[in-house]
Amino acid sequence: MSDTIKITVGDGICHVQMTRPEKKNALTAVMYQAMADALADAENNPAVRVILISGSGGSFTAGNDLADFLATPPLDDSAPVFRFIKGFAQLEKPFVAAVEGVAVGVGTTMLLHCDLAYAATNTKFALPFANLGLTPEAASSVLLPLRAGHARAAELLMLGEVFTAQTALDLGLVNAVLPEGQVFDHALERCRKLVAQPAASIRLTKQLLKRSQRVMIDEAMRAEADVFRQRLVSPEAKEAFAAFFEKRKPDFSRFG
User: Fold this and answer.
1) Which of 64, 90, 231, 235 is the most buried (most CB within 10 A)?
2) Is the CB of residue 110 less than 8 Å from the CB of residue 138?
3) Nearest Cα to 144, choosing from 63, 52, 224?
4) How many other CB atoms are found less than 10 A from the CB of residue 96?
5) ∠ at Cα 226 (79, 59), nearest 5°?
6) Ordered structural domains, the chain, with CATH
7) Please, which residues have CB within 8 angstroms of residue 190's CB and are 6 or more apart in sequence?
8) Is 181 left (phi over 0), alpha (psi -120 to 50) or beta?
9) What is the pLDDT of residues 29-41, one digit of tens each?
10) pLDDT in tens, 50-82
11) CA torsion angle for 142, 148, 149, 154 (degrees, to 10)?
């Protein structure tokens, strides 16, 4: 377990909290590993009926900690980041998110796999994969067009611009937008309602809701991971990462 990931289990709910507020909960390999393990444990624990994920310090997550990410790049399917993504994509139990502050990269793509998600009015979302010379993850290349249509998905994934909680609601990424400070309590109340429902009925309902997408998601995630790993060593990605650490605008003009 990581001291930057807090796991609480009680009253049928497994609460996974990212607790690195000084870095806006930017994710390291250790944090991904802890969350992947927590999801697996919750899925196998008969006392857990719902999984709730949230951040701390007014943020959901700023996405990858780039320094840590480059020091421990995901080279194969056993990498902690891929284990975490596969873990939340394959959950049979309800997966609920309470989102506020920033939700970057996986902080946005995981919402495509949540059954319920709630955001604060101040939440800023972003999918900056292309900006970093990379490509989409977590089957977002197929799930986002299904939710938002090709044109909106292309805009979000190709330009990587920040978008608001209201836009996330319009796109179907979240169920509701609430005032700051109310999101976690609302999400927790929804979790408690799910816990009170017949557990088998809820799991089977989720299974039926996702049945038509299961093969598509698995295939998309495999294809995305293969391309993502290739892009990590691309000249564009190296330029994007260098520019980030040097606090300058990247120059992609010399790359075809």
Assistant:
1) 64
2) yes
3) 224
4) 23
5) 55
6) 1-179+198-256 (3.90.226.10)
7) 96, 116, 118
8) left
9) 999 999 999 999 9
10) 999 999 999 999 999 999 999 999 989 999 999
11) -70
Residue 208 has which token pair? 């039926």
Tokens of 94: 């309800």
CA–CA separation, 218 and 223 (whole Å): 9
Model confidence at 1: pLDDT above 80: no
Q: Which two tokens stand for residue 10?
A: 């009680």
pLDDT at 6 over 70: yes
Alpha-carbon distance of 238 to 241, in angstroms, equals 5
Cα 196 from Cα 182, distance rounded (Å): 22
DSSP 27: B
Residue 5 β-bridge partners: 18
113 within 8 A of 89, measured Cβ to Cβ: yes
Token pair listed for 132? 């970093």
Q: Which two tokens stand for residue 171?
A: 């796109």
In the chain, where does DSSP find H-type helix? 29-44, 66-71, 80-89, 106-109, 140-148, 150-159, 165-171, 183-196, 199-210, 214-232, 235-246
Place of tokens 């990858």: 64
Question: How confident is the prediction for the chain on average, in pLDDT?
Answer: 97
